[in-house]
Amino acid sequence: MRDLKHAVLKLFLENRRESGKYYYTVPSPASYPYQWFWDSCFHAIILSHFSPHDAKNEIFSLLSKQFDNGLIPHMIYWKKGKVINVNWGKDGTSSITQPPMIAYAVRQIFQTDGDLSFVRTVYPSLYHFYRYLLTERDPHEKHLVGIMNPDESGEDNSPRFDDPLNLPPTNTLKENTKRRFQLVDQNIDCKFDAPFCMRNFFWVKDVPFNAIMVKNMQVLAELAEKLGNNDDALYFTQKSKEISSAMRKHQLSHGLFWSVYGKRYQKIKVKTWAIFAPLFAGILTKEEAKELVKKHLLNKKEFWTDYPVPTVSRKEPSFDPKGFWRGPAWIATNWFIYKGLLNYGFVEEAKRIKESSLALIEKSGFREHFNPLTGEGEGAKNFTWGGLVIDMD
Ligand code: GLC
């Protein structure tokens, strides 16, 4: 573990970049040479183990590009390079967001050094961001937060989005990317007006995004309380409860949570790691959690492969062990499941996820994702998310 911590630190020093007064970490120098939103939240969590100061810088650079309406873009180019030159209808950033992990990251930094002035400095921006999600992404006040593009889930080509995109379960990455870029063009046409874009083109209430929202609302309430702002604390606690019960009302069926889409809240019954995401926010009862872990996580025909946890169940027709978000194990999704298992006291199972994550990195290095059947590394190299294993403690 000590050697590993050293390797993570080395990787982070190599991937660190500076732009004027801002510092950030690139997920992978060759493949992802810019700043990404949820990646930076992961980076801040990892960096809090080495240097709260650097972790804060990761948050400051993110917030420096917050939009007037509160949105924090999922990509900040800082300086455009040769890869991923997408027209997002904006200069220097994208126009969509990613899973809202920033309150969690801020709390983790605060827990490390107790610096309340840092929380006070960033709190107004967090408030503004989460209010944007609670209003613009839930225009009818149904208490589920919508995404307007699959990339906002962080799982770009996950088979959860095949139906809403009108794609078959065996589409290629090329077809999938083409379709998602069509959506970006539509989003540009409707000026990224979220209610309008969602109503007309793509409106998914995704399980992990909402579970992450529930958890972050709890965390934000805690931070508000630390700042003596009891009204906000009550408000965010209330929002956390409302989203949690809306998830149970619209997404739960026979013990499993499914992402829903469209006006009729149609359930997308594709079994992905998303069924475990509610554990992270404590949305399941103890009994439900027990069933879920026994029947699905530890099931060799579904998620318990030689190198767990695959992002898609082996039983799904879309399962592809090398297919980006269509099967491989990713360390961030393992981290969410690990934390979720601990919430429910599944200490032994959590330990096994940690061991599997360590085994993947030992075998294949800091790769973007891993074949869950063989442990082989795939995708980007020198990829930062592997650092999350040091937060599995
Ligand atoms: C890919 C991933 C996304 C991540 C980005 C940078 O697009 O799907 O989740 O934020 O790469 O690592």
Summarize the entry for a quick read.
The protein is mainly α and 393 residues long. It has 14 helices and eleven strands. The chain has helices at 2-14, 37-47, 52-63, 102-113, 116-136, 162-165, 173-189, 194-200, 207-226, 230-251, 277-280, 286-297, 331-343, 347-364, and strands at 16-19, 22-25, 35-36, 75-76, 204-205, 252-253, 256-257, 260-261, 266-267, 369-370, 377-378.
Q: How would you describe what is shown here?
A:
The protein has 393 residues and is mainly α. The chain has a domain at 283-393. The protein is built from 14 helices and eleven strands. The protein has a three-stranded antiparallel β-sheet with strand order 5-8-9. Strands 1-2 form a two-stranded antiparallel ribbon. α5 crosses α9, α9 runs antiparallel to α10 (230-251) and α13 (331-343) runs antiparallel to α14. The protein is globular. The mean pLDDT is 97. Residues 27, 32, 36, 38-39, 154, 156 line the site of alpha-D-glucopyranose (GLC). One of its GO terms (molecular function) is Glc3Man9GlcNAc2 oligosaccharide glucosidase activity. Pfam families: MGH1-like_GH. Keywords: Glycosidase, Hydrolase.
